[in-house]
C-alpha cells in the first residue's frame, strides 16, 4: 500500500504535469500559428488583415485554454496538498486574477465580454 508521502509526491507530479501540459499547449500553438501566419503572408499577398485576425484568434484561444489548465493545476495542488485557509485564499486570488485575464483575452479576441452575446449582424432587407 502506498504511503502518504508517495500519494503527496504523486499529486505534486500530477499538478506539475498539468502545468507542463498548459505551457506546452501555449508554446506549441504560438509556434504553429506563427509558422502558418508567415506562410500565408508569403503566399497570399492580399487579405493580410484577415490573416492577422485569424492569427490573433488562434493565439487568444491558446492562452485561454492554457489559463484554464493552469487553474486546474492550482486547484489540484491546493485541494490535495495544502488545504489551509491561507492556501485557499491564495488559490482564490489566483483564480480571480486568471479569470480577469481570461475575460480580457476574450474581449480582445472576440470583441465582446464573455457574459454577453455577440452582437447580432443586421442583414440588409430588400425593402425599396
Characterize the structure shown:
It holds the Pfam family DUF1622. Keywords: Membrane, Transmembrane, Transmembrane helix. The chain crosses the membrane at residues 20-41, 62-81, 87-107. The protein is 78% helix and 0% strand. By secondary structure, it is mostly helical. The chain has one domain (4-110). The mean pLDDT is 83.
Write the layout of secondary structure elements.
Blueprint (H helix, E strand, L loop, with lengths): L3 H40 L4 H34 L3 H26 L18
Helix pairs in contact: 1-2, 2-3
Concise summary:
The protein is mostly helical. It has one domain (4-110).
- Measured between the Cα atoms of the first and last residue, the distance is 81 Å
**Unreliable residue runs:** none
Radius of gyration: 21 Å
Tell me the overall shape. elongated
Tell me the domain tally: 1
Helical fraction equals over 70%
**Would you count the extended β strands for me?**
0
Characterize the largest beta sheet: strand count, sense, and whether it forms a barrel.
none
Give me the strand/helix succession. HHH
Find the structural class using helix and strand composition: mainly alpha
- Please state roughly what percent of the residues sit in beta strands, choosing from under 5%, 5-15%, 15-25%, 25-35%, 35-45% or over 45%: under 5%
Determine the number of helices (DSSP H or I, runs of at least 4 residues): 3
